[in-house]
UniProtKB/TrEMBL annotation:
Residues 11-122 form the Phosphatidic acid phosphatase type 2/haloperoxidase domain. GO terms for molecular function: sphingosine-1-phosphate phosphatase activity. This is PLPP7 phosphatase. Keywords: Membrane, Transmembrane, Transmembrane helix. InterPro entries: PAP2/HPO (IPR000326), PAP2/HPO_sf (IPR036938). It comes from the Eukaryota. The chain crosses the membrane at residues 12-29, 70-95. Pfam families: PAP2. SMART domains: acidPPc.
Amino acid sequence: LKSASVSDLSLFFSPFVALLLDIMIVAGLQKLAKRKGPYDVTPGLLDYLTMDTYAFPAGHASRAAMLSKFFLNHLVLAIPLRILLVLWALCVGFSRVMIGRHHITDVLSGFVFGYLQFRLVELIWMSSNTCQMLISIW
């Protein structure tokens, strides 16, 4: 990262902070709601390690929505790539319904939470100077 430009740093750190924020918010909401998925699947060790034991809201959907919205706003992409990015986020979310881990409302709420988290990160967008300071601390 030492050779990265200042603008590259802000494009790296802001989504990184957003992903950490998403993990904490979704895990907290899942612990509060304690809604099980449509099938009574006993969580495995990996599910416990990734804090994916409850269904509401769908964390995969929230992260896919947040990242796709971030890339759509901050990268210059051709129209076909923009469409593929949105389709990717939709496929990620709805694949969770298809494998029986989430209800459709879990995924839809995950999309909404992902968008809201994107808006929150946009409000606290890290300036290039802030990113440089964080890099220098590491």
